[in-house]
């Protein structure tokens, strides 16, 4: 019996040229595959290029991680590094060192600290002017906001605040600074040109950090000992709303909000809840908590990836960092981050 022949269709006749079919099909799908591959490679390259810096207070180092939380290197810096800010061109990182009373300057390309700017005793949090030329630092021991010229390393001026100043935020126009006073329970509104406090806004107990809405109309303030966030109307300079947090089975005294940030579209706020070991995702419009996500012990500092798909949370008492998928609201992984990690800083 003659074996049956594979046919393309039911009619007898000349068979198609398989080689030509393959060439024709390839000419159609190969450019599409190549384009798709390039897009994928671009996305992977972008993610791999992302750098996550974490200051470790007790190791006196800034640890460098890739986007997935893998440790790349450790940079020796000044004593007790805390807050960090990138220079305007992104080439350098300024890190506040609380025990050596300095701002350490890290050259990212060299991977080391290349300079030290002397500051007053016990610096806490820092903000840079929009042009990156001036550092505004809360000085705990002196109860002042101090301004330093980064190039000359000279003190420009100091403005008296309430006791234990902490959070510092400078508006995008560079005209106004907001400073929290943990002792006075107020937010100072400072006119930087006039170099004076022009308004004190009563917040909750022990106000800590800030987040400014993209349109500049709302200032969110975390209140560590009030289990709350105060939402300030920047036009009237008054509190317009207060958001309280609660977790099932947990005492209010263990819910201690500190870290806070808003997404670029202004629709979502993320708040670290300190000793509650969770972070809260808040719907800005409704002022309601969408969900909470378990992190490590004493969830503290917060940073978002450039595409805002990953939230990095430093956990001060478990010495680690939790990576959270913001879309699913689930922790991806937790990685060691040095002893008492303070601030995460994500840079391209």
TrEMBL record:
Residue ranges of domain YNCE-like beta-propeller in the record: 44-169
UniProt keyword Chloroplast present: no
InterPro entries, per the entry: Host-pathogen_enzymatic-act (IPR051200), Lactonase_7-beta_prop (IPR019405), N2O_reductase_N (IPR011045), PQQ_b_propeller (IPR022456), WD40/YVTN_repeat-like_dom_sf (IPR015943), YNCE-like_beta-prop (IPR048433), YVTN_b-propeller_repeat (IPR011964)
Keyword annotations: Signal
Pfam family, one: YNCE
Gene3D superfamilies in alphabetical order: YVTN repeat-like/Quinoprotein amine dehydrogenase (2.130.10.10)
SUPFAM superfamilies from the UniProt entry: Nitrous oxide reductase, N-terminal domain
Name of the protein in question: YNCE-like beta-propeller domain-containing protein
Organism: Malikia granosa
């Amino acid at each position: 019996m003659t074996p049956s022949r594979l046919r393309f269709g039911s009619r007898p006749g000349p068979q198609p040229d398989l080689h030509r079919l393959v060439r024709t099909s390839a000419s159609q799908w190969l450019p599409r595959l190549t384009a798709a591959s390039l897009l994928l490679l671009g996305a992977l390259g972008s993610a791999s290029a992302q750098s996550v810096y974490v200051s470790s207070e007790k190791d006196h180092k800034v640890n460098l991680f890739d986007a997935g939380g893998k440790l790349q290197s450790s940079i020796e810096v000044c004593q007790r590094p805390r807050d960090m800010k990138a220079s305007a061109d992104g080439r350098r990182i300024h890190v506040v060192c609380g025990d050596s009373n300095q701002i350490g300057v890290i050259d990212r390309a060299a991977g080391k600290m290349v300079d030290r700017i002397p500051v007053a005793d016990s610096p806490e949090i820092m903000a840079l002017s929009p042009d990156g030329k001036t550092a505004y630092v809360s000085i705990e021991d002196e109860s002042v906001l101090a301004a330093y010229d980064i190039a000359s390393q000279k003190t420009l001026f100091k403005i008296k605040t309430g006791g234990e100043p902490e959070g510092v935020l400078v508006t995008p126009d560079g005209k106004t600074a907001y400073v929290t006073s943990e002792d006075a329970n107020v937010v100072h509104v400072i006119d930087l040109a006039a170099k004076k406090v022009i308004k004190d806004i009563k917040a909750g107990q022990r106000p800590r950090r800030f987040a400014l809405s993209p349109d500049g109309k709302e200032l969110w303030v975390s209140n560590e000992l009030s289990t709350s966030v105060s939402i300030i109307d920047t036009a009237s300079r008054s509190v317009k709303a207060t958001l309280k947090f609660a977790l099932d089975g947990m005492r209010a005294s263990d819910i201690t909000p500190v870290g806070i940030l808003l997404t670029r579209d202004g629709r979502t706020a993320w708040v670290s809840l300190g000793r509650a070991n969770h972070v809260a995702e808040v719907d800005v419009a409704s002022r309601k908590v969408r969900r909470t996500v378990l992190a490590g012990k004493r969830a503290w500092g917060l940073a978002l990836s450039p595409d805002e798909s990953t939230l990095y949370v430093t956990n001060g008492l478990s010495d680690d960092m939790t990576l959270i998928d913001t879309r699913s609201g689930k922790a991806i992984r937790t990685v060691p981050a040095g002893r008492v990690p303070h601030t995460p800083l994500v840079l391209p």
